[in-house]
Each structure stands twice: as C-alpha cells, then as structure tokens.
Amino acid sequence: MSRPSAGGHQARKRFGQNFLHDAGVIDRIVGAINPMPEDNLVEIGPGMGALSEPLLEACPALQMIELDRDLIPGLRTQFFRYPELTVHEGDALRFDYASIAGRGPLRVVGNLPYNIATPLIFHLLGFRDVVRDMHFMLQKEVVERMAAVPGDSNWGRLAIMTQYHCRVRPLFTVGPGAFKPAPKVDSAIVRLVPHDELPHPAADTEKLAKVVRTAFSARRKTLRKALAPLFNDEDWERLGVNPGLRPQNLTLADYVMLANDLHEQE
C-alpha cells in the first residue's frame, strides 16, 4: 500500500497542518476505526490523503471535508479510482454535518489541527444526534483533558461538556516522529461515542454550558466566589452543595443539577 507524503505540498502554519506519514500508526488508527463498506464515513482534513487511502479501501463512499483548496485537486486526482468519494471544500468549524447524514449516522474521523481541535469538538457535539462515533488524532494534552475525572487537575469545561454528550475513550499515544513536519508535542487517538440516552440530562444545555464556563473561568476560587454571579449563600444551602469546594470537585451530575436549578429559577 502506498503512503502519500507531504513532499509535494508545503504544510501551512495557518491551517495547523502536520501530515501523518507513519504507516504503522496509520494501520493502527484504521484498525481502531474498523470502517465498513456501508458506513457513512467522514474524514475531516484529509491533507495529503495518507489516512484516506486505507479508509477508501474499506469504505469507497468516504466523504472528505478539506479547507485548503490547494490540496483538493490533488486528492481528487489521487483517488480518481473511487467514484463514490465526495470531497467537500469547506471549513469543518462551520460545516453542517446534518446535511450529509442522509446515508445514516456519521462516523467522523480526522487528524485535527491543534489550533481548532477544541472548538471543532464543541461544534460537532451540536450534531450528536446524527453521529455514531468519532475518532480523532489530537494533542495528547487535549485528550487527557477530555477524559479527566472530577478532582483531577484536568477536570474542566472540555471534560464536562464532552462527557455530557459522549463516552470518551483514549486509545493510544502517537509520537511527533509520525508527522511531517514533526510537532513539538505528543498526540493521542481518542474515541467519542454519543450516549444513546444522556446519563444526566439537562433541561437547558445552554444553562449547563453557562454554569460550567462561569465556574472554570475562576477555577482556583471556591464555588461561592466563582459562581457568585449565578448563586448566593441561600442557594447553596438549599441545594446542599458545599460552597467552599473548588469547581474541579463537582461531578457532571452536580453541574447538571446546578444548571437545572438555574433554569427553574429563571
């Protein structure tokens, strides 16, 4: 199997491009995804197509979303043998994923640029109803934050909002040498699977996002101080929550309870 390299295209810093080239890592990623011919598979940021080739071999109706218009003609030429391939020129951060869910729930994969990973995850969570699963290469630190547990120093907005919508499973770490140019940090593969039923449903997810965002904007402070704009001492007593705790001490269920109370009070 040939492995396209980044040799013919200069990686663009503004797009956060680091092209994957390690054949062993590529095979391991594809094995974790386990694509099937009938899947509605979507690759975000195919780049030079190193991951695309084995994905297409397993799922010829692959859809790609690529922002760098200079790469698109090369992708179409490289994979001309796959007439079912669809390449969407567009920004994954603004893409309407529901518009391509006609063949069934989406299986989304991608080696995500570090500079857009977090906002892209939040954008995709808005489409969880049409997504079966997601497999992403991310900065290792981001994966650790997504998979964090209450009380951990990494527990915060990303973990809470991701775990509200999905089961999060880190799979394996990838070193800088697997990319050209090599990044300065380790990467990791993570699997996100939207919950069939939300374990802790919020009456209003915007309220949940507001409570979590407010709390962790002052994560070193106590809840009494961090959430002072939203709750007072009487609220804490009524809710049975110790306001002397730090934001990282509360669970997802706790934050949903606070959000639901805020929803009821307003």
UniProtKB/TrEMBL annotation:
It is found in: Cytoplasm. Its main location: cytoplasm. It catalyses: adenosine(1518)/adenosine(1519) in 16S rRNA + 4 S-adenosyl-L-methionine = N(6)-dimethyladenosine(1518)/N(6)-dimethyladenosine(1519) in 16S rRNA + 4 S-adenosyl-L-homocysteine + 4 H(+). Pfam families: RrnaAD. GO terms for cellular component: cytosol. The keyword RNA-binding applies. Residues 25-196 form the Ribosomal RNA adenine methylase transferase N-terminal domain. The keyword Methyltransferase applies. It is an enzyme of class 2 (transferase). SMART domains: rADc. S-adenosyl-L-methionine binds at residues 18, 20, 45, 66, 91, 111. Its EC number is 2.1.1.182. Keywords: Cytoplasm, Methyltransferase, RNA-binding, rRNA processing, S-adenosyl-L-methionine, Transferase. InterPro entries: KsgA/Erm, rRNA_Ade_diMease-like_C, rRNA_Ade_methylase_Trfase_N, rRNA_adenine_dimethylase, SAM-dependent_MTases_sf. Gene3D superfamilies: Ribosomal RNA adenine dimethylase-like, domain 2, Vaccinia Virus protein VP39. One of its GO terms (molecular function) is 16S rRNA (adenine(1518)-N(6)/adenine(1519)-N(6))-dimethyltransferase activity. Specifically dimethylates two adjacent adenosines (A1518 and A1519) in the loop of a conserved hairpin near the 3'-end of 16S rRNA in the 30S particle. May play a critical role in biogenesis of 30S subunits. Belongs to the class I-like SAM-binding methyltransferase superfamily. rRNA adenine N(6)-methyltransferase family. RsmA subfamily. NCBIfam families: ksgA (TIGR00755). This is Ribosomal RNA small subunit methyltransferase A. It comes from Halospina denitrificans. The lineage of its organism: Bacteria, Pseudomonadati, Pseudomonadota, Gammaproteobacteria, Halospina.
